[in-house]
Amino acid sequence: MITHSPTSQCDGAARSLQARWTRAPRRKATLAACLLAALCTPALLARDKDNKFTYTIFDPSGSVETIPTSMNPAGTITGYYFDGNAFYGFVRDHDGEITTFSIPGATATVGVSINPAGVITGYYFQGLVGHGFVRDRDGTITSLDPVGSSDTEPASINPQGAIVGTYFDAGNVSHGFIRTPDGAVHSFDPPGSNGTFAVAITPNGEITGYYNEGAYYQHGFLRSRDGNYTEFDAPEAISTTPAAINAAGEIVGSYYTLDLSKVHAFVRDRDGRITVFDGPGAFGTFPESLTPAGAMTGNYDTNAGQHGFVRDRESEFMTFDPPGSIRTEPRAINSRGTITGDYVDASGNAHGFVRKVSRP
Known about the structure:
Layout: H1 6-22, H2 28-32, E1 44-47, E2 53-58, E3 65-71, E4 77-82, E5 87-92, E6 98-101, E7 108-114, E8 120-126, E9 129-135, E10 141-144, E11 151-157, E12 163-168, E13 174-179, E14 185-188, E15 196-201, E16 207-213, E17 217-223, E18 229-232, E19 237-245, E20 251-257, E21 263-268, E22 274-277, E23 284-290, E24 296-302, E25 305-311, E26 317-320, E27 327-333, E28 339-344, E29 350-357
Antiparallel strand pairs: 1-2, 2-29, 3-4, 4-5, 5-6, 7-8, 8-9, 9-10, 11-12, 12-13, 13-14, 15-16, 16-17, 17-18, 19-20, 20-21, 21-22, 23-24, 24-25, 25-26, 27-28, 28-29
C-alpha cells in the first residue's frame, strides 16, 4: 500500500485534477504536439495474466495518437485520432474495419458517442469555433448548434437518437441542451446554475450532468424526461461531477472535498444512495462508463502511474493495463463487458485498445 504525506497528497490531487481537465478532446492538440513521428500499429492480441481477457491494439493508418471515446452493444467504436497535423473522427466496427471521417474545412473532427444503430454524435472545429454534428450510419453528417451558441459540445446519444451536451453563449456561459430525434434543439439549466454541463442521457430520456453555483461549487443533477431536477452531492463535496448514467438510473462520477487531498469516485443508485470508493493507493479515481448491470470502468492515478479498472456490482475492483502501457485510460464498457480506451506506450505514443472476455 502506498502512503502519502499531506503535501504529496495535495500535489497529487492537483495533478489529477489538472490531468482530468486536459483530457477534454479540445485540449488534445497541446498534448499531441509533443508526439514526434507518425505510427501505424497492426492489431495485436495479448492476454491478462489470468488468461481471462484478450487485448486488441489498434490505430487508424497514420495515427500518432488514437483516442476511442464510445462503444455500442455490438462493439462498434467511435473516437478520434491525430496524424501529426490534424484530428479526424473514426468508427471501428466489431470486425476491426476502421473508417475515418472529417467535416470539410474542419481543423478537428471528434467522434464522442455512438448509439446501438451506429449513429454518432461529436463536434468539429472551424478555426476556434466548435460545432456539433450527427453522423448517420450511411456517413451522412448534419451540423448541430443551439441558437446563440458560440461553441457546441455534444456528449451523449441514446438509442432513440436524442443527443445531449453543452454549449457556450456569447458571454462564455455554459448551458445544457437536448436535440430530440426530430432535430429540435432545446436548452436547459438547473435552478441556480451559472454554468451547466450535460454529460449523458438514458434510453428513456433522463439526463445527468453538473452545474456551477457561484465561483467554487459544482453540484450533480438528474433531469427527468419532463424537465424536473434532482440535485445531489457526494459527502462533503465542493465539486460533484457525474460521468455516466445507465438505464436503471445509476450514476457514476467523481468528486473532491475542500482539503483537495483526493479525487474520489462515487456511485449513486436510483434511490439516491451514494457509495464512495477509491482505487488502491489512488489520489484520483475517475469512473467513465457504466453498463446496464452496474459494472463500470475508468482509471485511477497513483504516484506509480495511471491504471485502468473494472468494478462490478458487488464492488469487486480489478486493476488492468494493456501490455506495454505506462498510462491506461479506459473510456467505455458495453453490456458484454468489452472495454475500449487508450493507453500510452514507453515511446509516448497513444494507441486504442479493446479488452474482451476470453471465450472457451
